[in-house]
Write a structure and sequence with these properties.
Number of strands: 6
Structural class: mainly alpha
Shape: elongated
Number of helices: 23
Order of helices and strands: HHEEHEEHHEHEHHHHHHHHHHHHHHHHH
Strand content: under 5%
Largest sheet: 2 strands, antiparallel
Radius of gyration: 29 Å
Distance between the termini: 42 Å
Amino acid sequence: MKKHLPLLLFVLFAAWAGKALIPEKDKSGELAVQEFGRLPVLTNGRVQPLDSLARNSLLQLREKQSANLEPWKDNMARPKVISATEWLMAMMMDPVTADAYPVIRIDNPDLKGLLSLPMDADASRQTDGKHFPWLQIRGKLAELQTEANRAQKLDQSHRTPFDQAVLHLWNGVGIYMRLQNTLQPQNAKNWPEEFAQYRERVPAGVTAARAQQAKQPYDEAALEALMTDLSRFDAMRQLEPPLIVPPHGAGDHQHDWMRMGDAVMEVARGDAPHFSVAAYVKMTGAFREGRTADFNGAVTDYLGALSTEFAPQLKKTRSEQRFNAFAPFYKSMTLYVIAGLCALVFWVAPSRFEWLRRSAVWLTVLALLIHTAGLIFRMTLEGRPPVTNLYSSAIFIGWGACVLGLILERFWRNSIGVTVSSVVGFVTLIVAHHLSLSGDTMEMMRAVLDTNFWLATHVVVVTLGYASTFVAGFLAIVFIVRGLFTRGLDPATAKSLSKMVYGIVCFAALFSFVGTVLGGIWADQSWGRFWGWDPKENGALIIVLWNALILHARWGGLVKERGLMALAIGGNIVTSWSWFGVNMLGIGLHSYGFMDAAFRWLMLFVGSQAALILLAAIPLRLWRSFSSSKADDDPPGRALPA
């Protein structure tokens, strides 16, 4: 039975992952949530489905892609949970209901005090102490704005956790208000009726406005009514909600997309309403009044109208919606965790748990396949190389590390390679998840990354250099932790780890050097100079020099196994700085990925790697795997191989 268990696990988890590829259909008699989520919208510089807008917005507000409307209940009590698209439908078409949904996450106690919010969970008051509805926040917007204005004037290095929480919430307030003004004015009571009345008032109001300009008698009431309407629509427009109204003609002219406020104001110029305006007005009325059949019919009719001129956009939104439902990187992350646990248990008793090692390999292969599918899917949707921003670089580094780990496992079947794949894959996907909390991960490419052949090759090759340097550093961590704290680092394992680290460092030196040179060629074509001592360029050069230093130190006999491991861990520090640190400086041509929130985590990571380097310097007689030896350095025999 154990012989076939790895393959059985592979098949079961493959079926679990593959199930998400089956398109989800709306149930008969229920709201057409999936069809509504497929509708196109232009935001963050690209056309995307409303499903993506909903997920990205909810991630920024709640840090999850679903809305728990009863977070004070535990899972056993079955709280009511709705999808991001269902939440967005309420936000856009029934704000009164949406305002009662506890979807705004606040953790900072000082910020809760400022807003007079409950500090702790209390089921009797229907609060979990972390998620709050707009109804409990909007009364304190003036105080919040005052604090946000103060915090924005501070240097980023001087902002306290309270200041950062205030700015994060203020950004969330902007997102919330923009979404609620996407299809109708936020204060609309009956939008279809109000829109119809506005259209009826336009002729008389326009006539009055022209008469006023000609200094002739005019109907003051008609002019005032029209100006009141236009001021509401102008307020919608100034909040800069997503562009929901497509161009009048076919094609992908993104600059011709309009906001609903602009499209409605066009009626005052005598233009007929855009067909999408009428469709959304009908959807809004049907949704608020609970007329499911009418709502579904309006969505279907609108999709049909779009399909005649915007078939490519609809095909793209359908694909992206399916990608969102598939969630390949979340599934890969889950599989990496399970595979890593199998590999760790194998280390306890290798002779008894060989089937667990093979299970870990099979599950890691499946995770890599899903990971690869996600990368290809993103590349297809973006029409770009796999690395375009910090998020995609984390995804790609995890992919490269997984490939390298499986190659190592193919030659040394001791679960070390598969552990590298699972741990580094999981950690990089966790990093990517936290990066996704800042918004759309497939946003329009920065101007500095206006792609060409040399950029596409540069980012791929240099990122593989990052990945391989991290793999070498993780192998070194395995060496030190197993040798210092366990008796599992026998001479054969120590020798294999040394060969692994040496081989990966050679690979890293080659790819980091070639990637840096390719970056210089791209810079010469884009900016007219091969090298400019930009912080990002300096970081890439430091990685090349560090890997060269490791190889020269090893070739020259300056270090043995422990020294090699310590230098490899130092590569983690150098690479993390080049990957994240230089972006946090906020200067140079490569500062497009700036995010000060990660600074604390970067410093913790650097500190942990420095601590591991110090542990490597502990005399071997104090290492559990070599405690029988009295030597202070790499001795012969049972100790580390020379």
